[in-house]
Amino acid sequence: MSGRSGWLLATMFASALAAGSASAQDKPAAPAAPPAAQKPPAPAIDTLRRIRETGTMLVGVRETSVPFSFLDAQKQPQGYSVDLCLRVADAVKAELKMPKLEVKFVPVTSSNRIPALVEGKIDLECGSTTNTRDRQKDVAFAFTTFVAGIKMLARKASNVSSIEDLRGKSIVVTKGTTSEKIMKQMNNERLLKMNIIESPDHGESFKAVDDGKAIAFPMDDVLLYGLISKSKKPDDFAVVGKYLSVEPYAIMMRKDEPAFEKIVNRALIDLFQSGEIRRIYAKWFNTKDLVVPLNQYLKEAFQAPNTYPAWP
After folding, report:
1. Of the candidates 200, 202, 192, 203, the residue with the CA atom closest to the CA atom of residue 169
2. For residue 140, what are the β-bridge partners?
3. What is the pLDDT of residue 39?
4. Which of 48, 105, 180, 229 counts the highest number of beta carbons within 10 A?
């Protein structure tokens, strides 16, 4: 079975389970309670109209998601996802015939990236965000541009090699990430009795391990390799353990904006079909500090663009 087929099968299987559960509970509903007073919904944002009117496109970026989206020594956004979003911005300029369109970068975090998008503070989020079923309820995702998997960062001297080695220990997670959710679930299901420290960003999470406050930092493997490559003593750390999930990254957009979504995805398809995506990939993932070969999931995502969510 191919990687893409396995991924799609897992997605279909999860959907079938959800449908079966709903059917089993199909009983007459109790009388509904009177609806509570609610605030009127916020007016929908028309991204393309707002861009035309303001002459500005708002791009959300991360500060420490190396090598996807981070600030360089001059505090300028750089990275694989940033490069892809700049290509999208070029496509928007061409579509709207606005060659002088300004791209304004707006820093976001794991915790506030979705509210910032929904509330119109940014038009795109260009970081290292995993496409999940839960997030699809609030936002839309463009085609997959990277596929990672959750592993653990630890000091080599700690001899951590599996989840079981974390039993009764302190670990750190970045708040608002899929790894936070997975680790809390595993902690409860396996009775691991871990002390889970929450950190605001990946840089602080790495520092917790570096300072000895946590024995491990579970996160997407490629981000962990990026953090190690930027550390003062990279040989002191390792990425360990089996994959705990498959994490497809994608540019995040607001829901229900088909015209804008079409421009974004068309720009990505052009990169995939021309082969330019591989040059951009090599720029960030085949360097003297970081070498991450294309995995099978990502090769298939470039060949057959998709928006499959993470699994499990």
Report:
1. 192
2. 253
3. 53
4. 180
DSSP-assigned beta bridge partners for residue 173? 198
* Strand-pair category, 102-107 with 56-61: parallel
pLDDT band at 25 (very low <50, low <70, confident <90, very high): very low
Mean pLDDT of 85-114: 97
**Averaged pLDDT for residues 33-60:** 80
Does the pLDDT value for residue 24 go beyond 50?
A: no
> Cα separation of 97 and 204, whole Å?
42
Distance CA 223, CA 130 (A): 12
193 torsion bin: left (phi>0), alpha (psi -120 to 50), beta (else): left
Q: Residue 88: name the closest of 117, 48, 120 by CA.
A: 48
Taking the C-alpha atoms of residue 225 and residue 144, their distance in angstroms, rounded to an integer, is 20
Phi, psi of 69, deg, nearest 5: -160, 115
pLDDT at residue 177 is higher than 90:
yes
Gap between the Cα atoms of 33 and 297, Å rounded: 47
